[in-house]
Amino acid sequence: ELRGVIALDGPSGTGKSTVARRLATLLGAGYLDTGAMFRAVTLAVLRAGVDPTDEVEVTRVAEGVDLRMSTDPADQDVRLGDDTVNAEIRGQAVTLAVSAVSAVPRVRELLKLHQWRIVDEACAGRGGIVVEGRDIGTAIVPDAPLKVFLTASADARARRRTSQDAAEGRKSTLDATRADVERRDGLDSSRAASPLRPAEDAVWLDTTDLDVEGVLDRILGLVDERG
Ligand code: C5P
């Protein structure tokens, strides 16, 4: 059983979501996909017809968003009000705009408060939670007892994203996906407000040559070690 928070950070296509969800299920813990939160705010921005690089307008939309997240690893519904947006937040329009929206400091501040509430609730209820994102170990839960930073080669990441797109019925090509993954990682790593970077005390895990079971084994080993 997990006590507290496992922070799982890294760039896109490293297998974070699959691993985080499976890990939460195995440990009887909660699961929070913070990328889905940034994607949902981005969808609200696009629906409002706002330019994702317009910080003032993006902030105004973010302040009015009614975002509802589930921490049940078996039921990952993301809602804007009563509207379930799981599929739409994975679409191309949101994927293209999300890095601009997530670079807006006020958006990060609002989502940080929301993430803290969710983490507190899950720790009180289930005892622990696996939180996945870019800045969990550095900015959101810097005192997490276990932080893992997942990496993988650019090729492996593009391949994973492409097969995930195919499995979920989205059209994409390996080249376009590779370009998109590199574009987003560049933006996410270079922004001023809590950029994507490993915490100093994070354990690095290169997933290039590991399957999901292999990654899970390593992380469960770390959970055991730290008791
Ligand atoms: O994890 P996912 O690819 O769904 O994340 C989508 C985007 O959300 C990232 O490219 C990044 O711009 C943003 N994000 C973030 N901080 C997080 C999680 C996601 O800035 N903790």
Describe this structure as you would to a colleague.
There is one protein chain. This protein is an alpha/beta fold and 227 residues long. The protein is built from 9 helices and 8 strands. A 5-stranded parallel sheet has the order 2-6-1-7-8, with helices on both faces. Strands 3-4-5 form a 3-stranded antiparallel sheet, with helices on one face. The termini are close together. 42% of the residues are buried. Cytidine-5'-monophosphate binds next to helix 2, helix 4 and helix 8. It catalyses: dCMP + ATP = dCDP + ADP; CMP + ATP = CDP + ADP. Residues 6-223 form the Cytidylate kinase domain. Pfam families: Cytidylate_kin. It is found in: Cytoplasm. Residues 167-188 have a biased composition (Basic and acidic residues).
Task: Output the keywords.
227 residues; alpha/beta; five-stranded parallel beta sheet; 9 helices; 52% helix; binds cytidine-5'-monophosphate; transferase; Cytidylate_kinase_dom; kinase activity; Cytidylate kinase; EC 2.7.4.25
Structural class comes to alpha/beta
Give the proportion of residues in helices.
40-55%
Strand order of the main beta sheet, please?
Answer: 2-6-1-7-8
Shape: globular
Low-confidence sequence ranges: none
Q: What is the beta-strand fraction?
A: 5-15%
| Average pLDDT for all residues | 95
* Major sheet characteristics: 5 strands, parallel
List the total number of helices.
9
Bound chemical compounds: cytidine-5'-monophosphate
Radius of gyration: 17 Å
Order of helices and strands: EHEHHEEEHHEHEHHEH
Condensed summary:
Helices cover about 50% and strands about 15% of the residues.
